[in-house]
Amino acid sequence: MAETEPAPLLGESTPPPPPSALFHRSLQQQPAKVISAKGIYLTLDTGRVVIDACGGAAVASLGHGNEEVIQAVAEQMKSGVSYVHSLTYTTDAAEELARHLIDGPQGGGRFGLTRAYFVGSGSEAMDSALKLARQYFFELGQRGRTKLVARRQAFHGSTVGAMNVSSNVPRKVPYANFQLDNISWVSPAYAYQYSNWQRGETEEEFAQKLVSSLDNHFQRIGPDKVIAFVAEPLVGATSGCTPAPRGYFKGVREVCDKYSILLILDEVMCGMGRTGTMFAFEQEGIVPDIVTIAKGLGGGYAPIAGMLVHQKVVEVVKKGTSSFNHGHTYQAHPVACAATLAVQRIIARDGMIDNCARMGRVLHALLVETFAQAKYVGDIRGRGLFWGLEFVQDKALRNSFPPGVLFAARFQAIAFELGVAIYPGAGTYNGTRGDHAIVAPPYNITPDELIKIVDTLKLAYDRLEKEID
Ligand code: PLP
User: Fold this and answer.
1) Of 370 and 153, which is predicted with more confidence?
2) Of 46, 337, 352, 455, which is most buried, counting CB atoms within 10 Å of its CB?
3) Is the CB–ligand 1 distance for residue 158 below 6 Å?
4) CA angle, 283 as apex, 282 and 287 as ends, to 5°?
5) Mean pLDDT of 26-35
6) What is the Cα–Cα distance from 65 to 173, expressed in whole angstroms?
7) Ligand 1: distance of its center to the CA of 269 in Å?
8) Do 82 and 279 form a contact (C-beta atoms < 8 A)?
9) What end-to-end distance do the CA atoms of the chain give, in Å?
10) What values do phi and psi take at 50, rounded to 5?
11) How confident is the model at residue 438, as a pLDDT?
């Protein structure tokens, strides 16, 4: 019989648990342990229940613990097909998911996006998009097109390719010599911090200025050397749900078209219904050549991401080598696709994207009512259920707190202690602009739940304001 540890005697102290063997982001702090979840509620191992008001990084589109999704995953597993390699095989789960995303009532087919490609993460989706864009010109014989243009204060992912087009300076600190020399950046379309608001510049004027500067940038590089312009329709992690000024994306599309440069939109965070329409670009009146999607796609039930590709690009590759020279072992993974198909079918069946738009209006109104007069909340912006609060030291100057103050991180910590999880993003470009928190609950959230979230955030804010003053 195996020898068992004697139980500690009453009053005898139990030894602390051994350090985690997991390589956590922080090697000092152990994250909270979640043992179960349902809807918007997470239960921690301490017994505490926390409202998940951000689904991690705007991932949980459907909320947690949906029985239909669990069933769909089990069914896929029961088929015995846990995994097959996509070079040789396809599966119903992957085919039906692609069909749903292309030909479904809210699918990309409405915009000429005719093929879906599935990978495991937003970064992989971005790398796939960059490589496909390059291959498009390779097939066309325009091999001198080697350059990519993106925007400053943008995050497109953590893999080396996606990190390269990103301009999230703090996240690149140890990797300066990993930077490719074929990438350059233009100004972010972030009116609150980068427009000339001091001189009364209007939204339209700011948009026009940015579009002209993009055109000039292309001309300086040589437009026939540029592969693609890469941008998020609403910027997530680096500035907190920032929509571009009116007219900006129309202008961007025109300038790209003028030089036959591809437009890659990164909807990893803001896509898949999060802003109240399936794609955020729908609200800009433009269509990208490639759009990347991720977080809300699988709603967190599976690690999945993808890109939807315009027929224009598909045709060129088809007529050329006829094969995308790229791939991942786990692409179009059947279990991930089955989970995602279930998530997307439920979202469509239950009209959840419309609910996202409706609840988004409720959330916006609550945030404005609660925080518009708050001393340190400079801006409240977003769309659908994707809202950011930007914190500033002085609203008249729009200046962020010095980096050491960590306003957003402290706000998040207090809110979490009070029972609401939000997503913080501290001044990520140069430490001085864009200290923000994101609220991004599931699309089936109710008004009462929103009230509870915003009331708790107000308590957290009031406590922090007192600490700062
Ligand atoms: N693009 C955007 C806009 C993102 O917000 C993220 C992640 O936060 C990524 C790409 C990278 O996605 P992942 O973390 O799944 O690799």
Assistant:
1) 370
2) 337
3) yes
4) 35
5) 90
6) 38
7) 7
8) no
9) 63
10) -120, 140
11) 97
228-250 per-position pLDDT tens digit: 999 999 999 999 999 999 999 99
> Which atom of ligand 1 is found nearest the CA of 123?
16
Q: Would you say 163 and 172 are in contact if contact means Cβ atoms under 8 Å apart?
A: yes
CA of 299 to the centre of ligand 1 (A): 14
User: How close is the Cα of 410 to the center of ligand 1, in Å?
Assistant: 23
Mutate to test the pocket of ligand 1, among 153, 155, 267 (most ligand atoms within 8 A of CB): 155
Q: How far apart (Å, rounded) are the C-alpha atoms in residues 1 and 365?
A: 65
Residue 380 in 3-state DSSP? strand
Q: Which helix (DSSP H) or strand (DSSP E) does residue 143 occupy?
A: none
Contact 419, 426 (CB under 8 A): no
What confidence tens digit (pLDDT) does each residue in 98-114 have?
999 999 999 999 999 99
Tokens of 401: 């707190």
Contact 120, 132 (CB under 8 A): no
Ligand 1: does its nearest atom lie under 6 Å from the Cβ of 57?
Answer: yes
Spatial CA neighbour of 436 closest among 425, 445, 447, 450:
425
Q: Is 150 in the pocket of ligand 1 (CB under 6 A)?
A: no
Angle at 124 between CA 314 and CA 54, to 5 degrees: 115
Kindly write down the DSSP assignment for every residue of 148-210, as one continuous string: EEEESS----SSHHHHHH---HHHHGGGGGG--TTEEEE----HHHHS-GGGT--HHHHHHHH
Ligand 1 proximity of 407 Cβ (cutoff 6 Å): no
What spacing in Å lies between the alpha carbon of 338 and ligand 1's midpoint? 22
> Can you tell me which residue has the tokens 């995602």?
340
Entry pTM: 0.95
Per-residue pLDDT tens for 148-158? 999 999 999 99
Q: In what order do the strands lie in the sheet with 34-38?
A: 34-38, 41-44, 49-52, 420-421
Q: Is 46 exposed, middle or buried (0-12, 13-18, 19+ CB in 10 A)?
A: exposed
The answer, yes or no, to whether any atom of ligand 1 lies below 6 A from the CB of 127, is: no
Instruction: Please indicate whether residue 161, judged by its CB atom, sits closer than 6 Å to ligand 1.
Output: no
